[in-house]
């Protein structure tokens, strides 16, 4: 895949800040983009001349940056061809982050399974399974039991919903990919929150859409700006409920005012993780045409791989037609178990919420103790804090942190154009003791960076 000079210029962002010669800073920034997966393996970079023009620097500087990357094994060159991205696998420190079992993994923001609850749900599901044996078991929309249970979950929250408004998917990410492939054409524009969930970015760019980011700040959503941007977009994707990564929840008054001009996908993956107040109202109560995406990955367990789309039956028909290109349906046992969990109101149980609350508080406390100049507002729900550092070190910190026994997801993975170099998402889904230890390790990694150390770890996957 060829990457244009303008795309590289957007990704490197504010590379000119910082000490050292310009070619060194540029090669460092490109190396971090490669390690972070934002410049993917095999991608063909622009020529030195084009890159120099796009960045407004001399060709000598661009050439020197590329040469450093070639020398360290991050670029492969051939005569009369563009340099392509590679990784120097022969270097011992070039192992993926998080492969050492003593490493604390802060790159995943997902709770562990509620063992007994899940066990009981699967036992009940196995009893019901024989009912399905007479049929083939492939159902593009999902089992009747689960579609009704999800519809009822919406009705209980004040949104009239019938089973034929529901399609069951293999998790929310599958739902986003299916919606992106079905609703978008190349060069369409998708309005996104900024920052947002990294795999949603990938689903939309994978459908060759362009992204139109609208900032979500510590004071919430800018409704006027969303309206303005919605007029030029073909689709909007918003995480209104305990947003990943910031934890923000759209207020009732913002929900009442927001009327997007384009079709809007609302990601309700975190809805049930209200830690300090009530579960928010479904967005479609206010905007009946909203396409809602849900999942039990955070309210029960990611390993279930069960999600859904709530939409008008006509749209679900289109999705049903498109689905077999990539998969033929969702496993029946998991659907039956999820229906039991929803019907018995055992999703996001009191123990899950209690643990998340005390872990969130332990994480905040550890930050105050070990990283007192890092600002991390305490969210009212969800699974993560969005921590902001005074200095733009996020990608470098992610690349060195595994040397200190912790993995993190760097801020720029949650945005476009190299934004969020001062931010790190810190999930509170691990036990409090591990969170405290992780933050003390992160503080050590940060001190090492300040002394001039560099890391070379490729990032662990984010969820
Ligand atoms: C906002 C958001 N949407 C979607 C997903 C994907 O969820 P699932 O595991 O159901 O595919 C996640 C998972 O982290 C998420 O945080």
From TrEMBL:
It holds the Pfam family Aminotran_1_2. It comes from the Bacteria. Gene3D superfamilies: Aspartate Aminotransferase, domain 1, Type I PLP-dependent aspartate aminotransferase-like (Major domain), Winged helix-like DNA-binding domain superfamily/Winged helix DNA-binding domain. PROSITE patterns: HTH_GNTR. Residues 20-88 form the HTH gntR-type domain. Keywords: Aminotransferase, DNA-binding, Pyridoxal phosphate, Transcription, Transcription regulation, Transferase. GO terms for molecular function: transaminase activity. InterPro entries: Aminotransferase_I/II_large (IPR004839), HTH_trans_reg/aminotransferase (IPR051446), PyrdxlP-dep_Trfase (IPR015424), PyrdxlP-dep_Trfase_major (IPR015421), PyrdxlP-dep_Trfase_small (IPR015422), Tscrpt_reg_HTH_GntR (IPR000524), WH-like_DNA-bd_sf (IPR036388), WH_DNA-bd_sf (IPR036390). In the C-terminal section; belongs to the class-I pyridoxal-phosphate-dependent aminotransferase family. This is PLP-dependent aminotransferase family protein. It comes from Streptomyces lonegramiae.
